[in-house]
Amino acid sequence: MPSSEYYRVQAKVLLRLMLAMRDSKRAAKVEAKAREYLAQAEVPDDARELNALLEEFNNSQLRKGLTSKN
């Protein structure tokens, strides 16, 4: 999983890109993504790892459910 620093750097890159954009609608979308990255940067690394493990478990359960129905 990416670290908090990774998300901060990505957000900074997106914000710089946003400032250079002329299309305000696209700039707003880029800004929204930057805000998502900043929010991810605030999530503790331990919680991010737990979320990844939970997602992997849930996906495996879904796959099991799909294969047992066939």
General description of the model:
This protein is an all-alpha fold and 70 residues long. The chain has one domain (4-69). It has helices at residues 4-20, 24-42, 45-69. Helix 1 packs antiparallel against helix 2 (24-42). The chain is elongated, with a radius of gyration of 17 Å.
Compose a concise summary of this entry.
This protein has helices at 4-20, 24-42, 45-69.
Summary keywords:
mainly alpha
| Distance from first to last alpha carbon | 33 Å
Global Rg: 17 Å
Order of helices and strands: HHH
Q: Please describe the biggest sheet, giving its number of strands, its sense, and whether it closes into a barrel.
A: none
Mean pLDDT: 88
Label the structural class. Answer: mainly alpha
How many H/I helical runs? Answer: 3
Which percent range describes the beta-strand content? under 5%
Instruction: Give the overall form.
Output: elongated
Count the domains. 1
Uncertain ranges: none
Helix content: over 70%
- The total of beta strands comes to 0
Fold topology:
Layout: H1 4-20, H2 24-42, H3 45-69
Helix pairs in contact: 1-2
